[in-house]
Amino acid sequence: MRFILSAVIIAMVTYGNGDEPKQVLTAAFTEAEPSLTQDKEFLRRLERLEPPTPRDIQTPFLQRPFPSIMKTTKEVMHRGVLLPFRLILNDLQWQRPLYKEQWHSTYSGGRWAYMPLRLSYAQHRVFTTSAVGLSNLYDFLHNLGLSDLNVEQKGATQVERVNEVVAVVMQAKIERVVTKGNQVVIVARPQRTGVQAITINKLNMKLDNEEEAILFQLVTPDGDEIDYSIY
Question: Over the chain, what is the mean pLDDT?
């Protein structure tokens, strides 16, 4: 990268050929090269923004496989059991941001600036994470562009949160949560605005296989899948 720094140097020149002295303005431009420190900083920021070489990327992070036993969303809705949940965030007027300042490459060392990661989050409307771990929740919050997510709401203790899963739903209003096997179906009505966050305790689920991932599915009241998240 190269930047041109232009400065105007004004000189007063007096001419005398028998006439009245005249003062003429002359200008000169100087060019300054960026320092090595600046070069390294720009390269570091670029590394935070994109892969080192052009390549196709399906997902920017490791994702667990889907559960080996899969059911249709309607089967889960009709034959599953209702899951109790804690509502920890409910802002129906919230508008999803196109860009947040913390996603800039100069913010916190570019911690959330990687473009494949940003595009991956933009593709989804439901997100899941563990309710414990301050660093984990800190990254989760900033990646979603949210300002607050109080997992301790309603007096939940650290011990109670060990088995809790946080699910954030954007642009949909949750009606109920149903589970069967390693699937959790969040039934919600699509909205143009709004964000809700709930916690679900895994102890209330009867998993087919505790070693496998749990598939969270955001669906309409008719059972049509809007989005999914693998926990």
Answer: 85
Through-space distance between the first and last CA atoms of the chain, rounded to whole angstroms: 42
Type of residue found at 117: L
Pairing relation of β-strands 86-91 and 225-230? unpaired
Cβ-Cβ contacts under 8 Å for 94 (sequence gap 6 or more) = 193, 194, 195
Q: Pick from 144, 4, 121, 149: which is nearest to 59 by CA? A: 121
Please give the Cα distance from 114 to 103 (Å, whole number).
Answer: 8
Q: Which residue has the tokens 């052009």?
A: 54
Contact 172, 125 (CB under 8 A): yes
Cβ burial, residue 91 (10 Å; 0-12/13-18/19+): middle
* DSSP code, position 25: E
- Averaged pLDDT, 85-105: 95
CB 200 within 8 A of CB 126: no
Handedness of CA 154, 157, 163, 164 (dihedral sign): positive
Q: What confidence score (pLDDT) does residue 34 get? A: 63
> Residue 69, Cα to own-chain centre: how many angstroms?
30
What angle separates helix 134-144 from helix 115-122, to the nearest 10 degrees?
A: 70
| Ramachandran angles phi, psi of 78, nearest 5° | -90, -30
Q: In 10 A of CB 214, how many CB atoms?
A: 22
Q: What is the pTM of this model?
A: 0.80
Integer Cα distance of 39 and 46 in angstroms: 11
Q: Please name every residue paired with 82 in a beta bridge, in sequence order, or none if there are none.
A: 178
Q: Which of 163, 187, 170, 197 is nearest to 82 (CA)?
A: 187
